[in-house]
Amino acid sequence: MDLEAEIRALQLDSADLKDNVQESAPVPVEQQATEDHDQEILLPVHNPAKAKEKAAQENAAKEEAEEEAEANKKRHLNAVFIGHVDAGKSTIGGQILFLSGQVDDRQIQKYEKEAKDKSRESWYMAYIMDTNEEERAKGKTVEVGRAHFETESTRFTLLDAPGHKSYVPNMISGASQADIGVLVISARKGEFETGFEKGGQTREHVQLAKTLGVSKLVVVVNKMDDPTVNWAKERYDEIEQKMVPFLKSSSYNTKKDVIFLPISGLMGVNMDKRMDRNVCPWYSGPSLFEVLDSIEVPPRDNGPFRMPIIDKFKDMGTVVMGKVESGSIKEGDSLIIMPNKEPVKVVAIYCDEDKVKRAGPGENLRVRITGIEDEDILSGFVISSTVKPVPAVTEFVAQLQIIGLPEKAVLTAGYKAILHIHAVVDECEIMELISQIDMETREPIKNKGVRFVKNGAGVVCRIQVTNSICVEKFSDFPQLGRFTLRTEGKTVAVGKVTALSSGVSSSA
Ligand SMILES: Nc1nc2c(ncn2[C@@H]2O[C@H](COP(=O)(O)OP(=O)(O)OP(=O)(O)O)[C@@H](O)[C@H]2O)c(=O)[nH]1
Ligand SMILES: [Mg+2]
C-alpha cells in the first residue's frame, strides 16, 4: 500500500484550515495583568469622559488581541485510543506526553520505581495515563484517561479508552466524544490473534467506533520491537491483510478513511520522528505525529448550542465536562440543562488547561455554572441553548441492526437492554417491532409485519426508556441520534433514531 498517497488523500487543504479555525482562545494572563495595571496608574480620574474613552480604546485593543489569538490558534481534534486489552494504548499515550515534553525524566524514573514495586516494570509509560491505584496495580485502564498534546498544526484531546471487556461502557463514552480513532493493535505473537478473535475487543471496538461516529481510523501496529516480531515486515503485512477486510465489513472506507503504520509505543519509535532505517529498513512512510497532523477535521456544527455532560463535580460551584457537539458558548451565557429544564449561567470555561472566554463546536470543555447543584445533574444531561433546547423523550422510533445476538436467539417486543446514546446509559425496552428492514437497500419493507428478528437482521422498532433522555433524530443531528444496545456485557445491536414520539417537549 502506498502510504504517502494515503496521507496525501487525507491532507487538509488551506481552505479547510480556514474553515476550521477554532473559536476558543486563552486570555494571556500577563497581558491582562499589565493592562489592568496601566489602567490603575494612568487613568486621569479628574476627567471621567476621557477615562471612559481610554477604557473603550483599551477594551477594543484587548478584543482585537483576543481575536488575533483565536485566529492563530491551531485546529483541534478529539482522538480516542481504542483496541484490545494490553495492546499498548496507555503506553502510547504516555509516550506522546513524554515526547511532547509534558513529562520529564525525573517523573519517568519515579514511575519506573513505582511500576517495579508493583511487579509491573514494563508498565511505567502507561502509568502516565493510568493515574489511579486500581489501574496501576492491575495494569489496566478503567476510566477514560484524558490528556492534551499538540502536533505541528493541531491541538489534540487524547482520550485513552480501556480495552478490557468489562469496561466497554467507558470506552463507549470515550468514543462518543471523539472525531478520530487510533486503533492500537499488538503485533506480539498471539496477542493480535486474541484481540481479533470473535469476542475480542479489536472487533468490538471497531464496530462501536463506527457506530459512534468515529469516521477515520489510524491503525497503529504496536509492539513491533517485541522479540517475537523484531520489526518483521511479514507480521505487519499479515495484520494489515487480515484487518482490511474486517474494517471494510465494519463500513470503513479503507482507502480514504484508514491508514496503517508500524510503531513501538514503549520505545517511542516512529512516533514524533520518522523511522530510523537501521531499526526498520522497509518502512519509509510518515510518523504517527505526521499522520495525526494530516487528518482532516470533520465539519463542525454551528447550530444551537448542545453539550452532553460526561461528568460533573464540585469545584467552587458546579463544574460540568463534555464535548461541544454544536454551537458556541461564552462566559455569561444563559443556557438550560435538559431534560430537567434547569436554567443555568456560565461563569467560566476551561479548554485544555486554559481559561477561555468562549469556545466553539468540537472542543472538550470544563464549564463552571451557577443555578444548579452538581447532585442534580446526571451524565447524559445536555446543556443546551434556551432558544432551541434539545428534545427530551421517554420513547422514540429507531432503525436497529442486530449484530450480537447468540446464534439461536431472537429479539422480540419486550426485549430489555442497556441503551448507550451520547453520554446517556439507561435501561430500555423494545415495545414494538414495526417493520423489517431490507439489508440490501437498508429500507424498511412496507406492509410486512414482523414478530421477531435474528442476528444480522434490521428492524424498525419503538423503544422506551425509564427516564426522560435527550435525543435527536439521526438525520437532524447524528451525534445525538446514534446508539448501541448492550446486554450482559455484549453489544447486541446498533441503531439510529428516526422519529421522536408525540408528547416530546422540544421547547422548554
Ligand atoms: N515490547 C513492547 N511492549 C509494549 C509496547 N507498548 C506497550 N507494551 C506493553 O504492553 C503492556 C500493556 O500496555 P498498556 O499501555 O497498559 O496497554 P493498554 O492497551 O492501555 O491496556 P488496557 O488499558 O488494559 O486496555 C505493558 O506491559 C506495556 O509495557 C511496545 O511498543 N513494545
Ligand atoms: Mg490502558
UniProtKB/TrEMBL annotation:
Keywords: Cytoplasm, GTP-binding, Methylation, Nucleotide-binding, Phosphoprotein, Protein biosynthesis, Repeat. Residues 50-63 have a biased composition (Basic and acidic residues). GO terms for biological process: nuclear-transcribed mRNA catabolic process, deadenylation-dependent decay. It is found in: Cytoplasm. The keyword Transmembrane does not apply. Pfam families: GTP-eEF1A_C, GTP_EFTU, GTP_EFTU_D2. Residues 74-300 form the Tr-type G domain. Belongs to the TRAFAC class translation factor GTPase superfamily. Classic translation factor GTPase family. EF-Tu/EF-1A subfamily. This is Eukaryotic peptide chain release factor GTP-binding subunit. It comes from Brassica oleracea var. oleracea. The lineage of its organism: Eukaryota, Viridiplantae, Streptophyta, Embryophyta, Tracheophyta.
